[in-house]
Amino acid sequence: GNQFTMQVTNEGEASERQPQAYRVRLIEAEDGRLVAEIDGVRRRFHIGEIGQHVAVHGAGCGSELEAISRFPQRAVSAVAGGCAAPMTGRIVEVRVAAGQQVAAGDTLVVLEAMKMEHQLQAAAGGVVAAVHVEAGQMVDPDKVLVVVEPQDDTAASDVQEVS
What we know:
This protein is an all-beta fold. The chain is built from no helices and 15 strands. The strands form three sheets. It has a six-stranded antiparallel β-sheet, with no helix packed on it. Strands 13-8-10-11-15 form a five-stranded antiparallel β-sheet, with no helix packed on it. The protein is elongated and about 70 Å long.
């Protein structure tokens, strides 16, 4: 079975105890049941889903777990009239300047991430209102890179990415 180490803390309790680490080996998991070996002792648990949480109940104990996505949702999916970094990376090139006229599809910024160059393009035409980055700068996901004021109210707000 799968082996892992888990750390347990008593959150919410007034306790000065240090978190405890347990060596856990998953033996079986199916139909709402879980069998695991914890520090050499085999234990059986019942599992139930409650919305975004998973309830785990065993002999004399119970826990409620919350599933946390390994890849969390982006805080900013699009910047109206501009672009935000889709991931952590380094700015390779800034192809626009404040006051410059751009058309839909024009590359605004080139971002290097995951050993690839990503061209972030304007989804609609407009005038560059602000450039918040420069070549060589490291950026985090969702950092606003360029703001473009659309030419009209019907301009699309999504950023196109071409790799």
